[in-house]
Amino acid sequence: MSARPGAADPGPPADPGDAQRRELLAFSWSRLPFVTPEAPGTGGRIRTRPEDFVVTELPLYLPEGTGSHLYLHVEKRGLTTRDLVIALVAAGVEEASVGVAGLKDKHALTTQWLSLPKRHEAAAAALERLPGVRVLERSYHRNKLGLGHLKGNAFAVTVRGVSAGAEEAAAAALAALARRGAPNWFGPQRFGRFGTNAYDGWRVLRGENVPGGHRLRRFFVSALQSALFNEVLKDRIELGLYETVVAGDWARKHDTGGTFLVEDPAAEAPRAARLEVSATVPLYGRKVKPSPARAGEIEAAALARLGLGWSDFTSRRGDRRLTRIVVTDTAVERAGDDLVLRFALPKGSYATSVLREVMKVDVDEPATPGEAEAG
């Protein structure tokens, strides 16, 4: 049944049963299809040491050199971005005054910009005293660095213990991803150490007593939204709709972020094939309701399978998420018996989405909430 924008919820879907629901909501890579099945996997291991996973923030702008805020270009190893913020707060900086563009993973060698008010300039020494931290550059700018003020991140990932022919396989997979985009999965980081956060989110929506404070319960509901997104994207891939759009899609332009309703899929399909636009999938909430037409039918099938209705999410504002990630600056280098994969992703993307397609193995990053996404 097609879902019209603003239409009433068609009523509670058939309940799949608690055991089946728990299984469907538990994260598992094995349920999610590849989009480059023609490219053999390299196998191998990542993150054997922090230097194996190098992340370089790509800033939206650089500091001008003058202004009321000190900008610090920082390299860190074995620390979260939050650890840097805590060090500055301990040195006397108000937490709300510390600016970061994105969160960087702990289990990596990363570089990023931070800002703090110029009046707290002496506090910068606290970062330089942290083991594993180097301040690479200092400058000034007129405003605080805002969350999301970055283009994306560049990655250099060493894959150790690869199979024979891995260099050619990796090059083929990366070339395919550069043409058609990487699937914008929510990876295991979103679903907790045991992959059960989405199920706990379902329990929160049902009013069950789930341990944790208000913030943690909201995180569980967010995980449930993420599981539903993955389910819809999985269905689209299996239906052969990954590289195109259908009637009722709210498609987004990759260059400008503009979103529009697809009414004539045949007219928009060439742009989707060129990776200029991609479909979005809703993270349901008060402001985001089911899509119309064919897109809504696909969403409704996933909701029913999980025993959910879009109106279950009215406690959240809602959003839409692209189904595909643009992958740029791809390269493969041989490093003795290992490979170094290089690629760049836009902000908010998971590197696991690329690495899984190249390696064809389950790629599980350490689950540090909020730190593993390429923000």
Structure in a nutshell:
The protein is α+β, with helices and mostly antiparallel strands and 375 residues long. Helices cover 27% and strands 23% of the residues. The strands form 3 sheets. Strands 1, 2, 3, 4, 5, 6, 13 and 14 form an 8-stranded mixed β-sheet that branches. Strands 9-8-10-11 form a 4-stranded antiparallel β-sheet.
Could you characterize what this model shows?
This protein has two domains: 1-54 and 157-362, Pseudouridine synthase; 61-147, TruD, catalytic domain (Pseudouridine synthase, 2-Layer Sandwich), CATH 3.30.2350.20. Strand 8 and strand 9 (259-261) form a beta hairpin. The protein is an alpha+beta fold and 375 residues long. It has helices at 18-25, 81-90, 124-128, 166-180, 197-205, 214-238, 265-273, 293-305, 352-359, and strands at residues 53-59, 69-77, 99-100, 109-117, 133-141, 150-159, 182-183, 250-253, 259-261, 277-283, 319-322, 324-325, 328-335, 338-346. The strands form three sheets. Strands 1, 2, 3, 4, 5, 6, 13 and 14 form an eight-stranded mixed beta sheet that branches. Strands 9-8-10-11 form a four-stranded antiparallel beta sheet. A two-stranded antiparallel sheet has the order 7-12.
What are the SSEs and their pairings?
Blueprint: H1 18-25, E1 53-59, E2 69-77, H2 81-90, E3 99-100, E4 109-117, H3 124-128, E5 133-141, E6 150-159, H4 166-180, E7 182-183, H5 197-205, H6 214-238, E8 250-253, E9 259-261, H7 265-273, E10 277-283, H8 293-305, E11 319-322, E12 324-325, E13 328-335, E14 338-346, H9 352-359
Parallel strand pairs: 1-4
Antiparallel strand pairs: 1-6, 2-4, 2-5, 3-4, 6-14, 7-12, 8-9, 8-10, 10-11, 13-14
Helix pairs in contact: 4-9, 5-6, 6-8
